[in-house]
Design goal:
single chain, 7-stranded mixed β-sheet
């Protein structure tokens, strides 16, 4: 006899497997038992647009400027190509006044006159109103160069300045501070200093706009931080440009809405996920020149990047478990094999621990009065909206700003059931162990708790007149990532009182039509599941606090707890730990050792 549970992509794949099995063996020599369950497709296949990211830590692309092509180096290859197009236009302009630049490039720049403080101007009042750049152009006749100075930050409603930056930026420029926080001073050049400084300043502004565009929208089908071919049209619309790219497959330029308005001599061409420029008048020659001169410089471990280190510092504060809860879900399966929750049990560690006290370490059963009290500390929510009810319950607990909810094997089961609810998670951390960390902003947070969270945030940041919702933070974790054992065996190994240990239930007997009628059977089972897990978490955290001053709430898994404990021990001895910061060196060290994740630190 052999038990196995293989997975197949489709019914056809299962039929092929079965036929292959029949061909290679005698069908009279075996018998299949069990069921074949076909799960409906629950994921939507997204067809992603091609993207350009440029170099990475594994290699660098060598810059090349030819007669018919341009290959930028490093990252942000898209905006480097755009800046190259803009720079070529500026160099060929007979006049470069603000009005001339606006007519030719439509960049919507704002200018600042250092001789007239608080005087920001633009080629039109409309531009001055809509411009959202953090920097303004300014020209210094004495230095014969353009610079950038930061705008003062104002309240959008009252117009009151809450951060003075322009005055500080002007002082930085006058002191030729090339690394100022409130200004940008281009490096001096041997010739054409005024034009080159103008180009450098515009490049900085365009780069800032590019970053704002990349991280403005996210979620759904939008990839945050990645420049794709399909985003070029949106980039053109956002900044009044007509950038186009050449598709070598169908020999057409896109986006079509910008083709007739584009008057650039160079256009974008995506080659090996790297944006480059080719000559629009002879695309074939440009592509041929590009492919011949496209070269990668691969990274190596050399003295330079191996010596790039910094002191490693991490937070090791232990989070108290006053706001930690344990929970468990009970589910039934429908005819298609989908799980649906019908009950949810939750208990607060602090309340359960206050009742148990020293009896948690007793091998004897709990007294009847204590057992009754501890079971009362468990809340049970019934129905297919039980998770929704749990969120409402947590949101109305007085002074509860954030909570950690721990389930056993939650990373591979309970967290997935929670995800089926209509709430949108704020953060999901999924590894090979499943969903090890799941965070939500609780939309059912009471008005009193929202005000408390708002007051705490205001006191911490110094900000006043805050608006919007301030929701409670809920974090779902899994105890199985700390203790690789079943809950039943954990009850024995941790020696918790016998009458609060996990019991048994025939889960297959519960379905949609009878779960209410079977409440007397599953309710005691669910309560003991919650109480037994709470007792185990309390004992586990007590042991780990004594050993390494950590607990389950403060750490996602046992390895992270061990790592924090080791670092705390090292820090107590005042021994400094240094870690490599070069990305390639870190990648090389981690891949040099097999069997687990490697901390790329340097031996002193």
């Amino acid at each position: 006899q052999k038990a196995f549970s293989p997975g197949f992509r489709s019914p056809a794949a299962f039929s092929a497997y079965r036929n292959s099995f029949d061909e290679k063996s005698d069908e009279d020599a075996y018998t299949f038992t069990g069921v074949v369950r076909y799960a409906k497709t629950s994921f939507k296949m997204l067809i992603r647009s091609q993207y350009g990211k440029g170099s990475n830590f594994m290699f660098n692309i060598i810059e090349f400027t030819g007669q018919y092509c341009y290959i930028p180096t490093g990252e942000n290859c898209f905006i480097k190509c755009v800046n190259k197009i803009i720079a070529d236009k500026i160099l060929n302009m007979p006049k470069r006044s603000p009005a001339a630049l606006q007519d030719a490039l439509k960049l919507n720049l704002t200018y600042y006159d250092p001789s007239k403080p608080n005087n920001a101007r633009a080629s039109s009042e409309d531009i001055l109103t809509k411009n959202k750049d953090s920097m303004m152009m300014c020209y210094y006749k004495d230095m014969e160069r353009y610079c950038l100075v930061a705008k003062d930050l104002r309240n959008a409603k009252t117009g009151k300045i809450y951060k003075y930056r322009t005055e500080k930026g002007v002082l930085e420029i006058e002191n030729l501070n090339h690394s100022g926080e409130n200004s940008f001073v281009p490096r001096p050049s041997d010739k054409n200093q005024i034009v080159n400084s103008l180009i450098d300043c515009i490049k900085e502004i365009i780069l800032e706009r590019y970053y704002s565009f990349l991280y403005r929208n996210s979620g759904g089908d939008v990839r945050k931080g990645v420049m794709t071919l399909s985003k070029i049209s949106a980039f053109n619309s956002a900044y009044g440009m007509n950038i186009i790219h050449f598709n070598s497959t169908d020999r057409h330029c896109y986006p079509k809405s910008s083709v007739n308005f584009n008057n650039d001599k160079d256009i974008l061409y995506l080659y090996q996920n790297h944006f480059c420029l080719i000559y629009k008048g002879n695309k074939a020659v440009g592509i041929e020149e590009l492919t011949k001169n496209f070269k990668k410089e691969w990274a190596h471990c050399i003295d330079g990047n191996v010596q790039e280190t910094k002191e490693f510092v991490m937070k090791t504060e232990r989070q108290e478990e006053d706001d930690t809860f344990v929970f468990d879900l009970e589910t039934y399966t429908d005819d298609d094999g989908w799980f649906h929750p019908y009950a949810c049990g939750i208990g607060r560690l602090k309340e359960i621990n206050d009742v148990l006290g020293d009896l948690i370490n007793s091998p004897q059963p709990l007294p009847a009065d204590v057992l009754k009290k501890v079971l009362k500390k468990t809340k049970i929510f019934t129905g297919e909206t039980c998770i929704n009810q749990m969120f409402q319950y947590l949101g109305n607990i007085t002074d509860l700003q954030k909570a950690t909810l721990i389930a056993h094997n939650g990373s591979k089961f309970d967290q997935y059931i929670v995800l089926q609810e209509s709430f949108k998670p704020s953060k999901i951390l999924k590894t090979g162990q499943g969903i090890v960390n799941l965070s939500y902003r609780n939309i059912f947070t009471s008005t009193e708790n929202q005000q408390l969270i708002k007051d705490v945030y205001s006191e911490k940041t110094g900000k006043v007149d805050l608006e919007g919702k301030f929701y409670q933070k809920l974090t779902f974790r899994c105890s199985f990532n700390h203790i690789k054992s079943s809950l039943e065996k954990m009850c024995e190994s941790f020696k918790i009182p016998e009458n609060i240990r996990k019991t048994g239930l025939d889960h297959n007997a519960v379905n949609k039509s009878n779960y209410l009628a079977m409440r007397p059977e599953w309710k005691p089972y669910l309560k003991l599941d919650v109480v037994s897990l709470a007792a185990i978490v309390i004992k586990y955290s007590t042991i780990m606090t004594d050993l390494v001053d950590q607990n389950m709430t403060s750490n996602i898994s046992a390895p992270s707890l061990t790592f924090k404990g080791w670092y705390s021990h090292i820090a107590e001895k005042e021994v400094k730990v240094f870690s490599h910061v070069n990305p390639f060196t870190r990648w090389f060290i981690r891949n040099a050792v097999k069997g687990g994740r490697v901390f790329a630190n340097k031996k002193a």
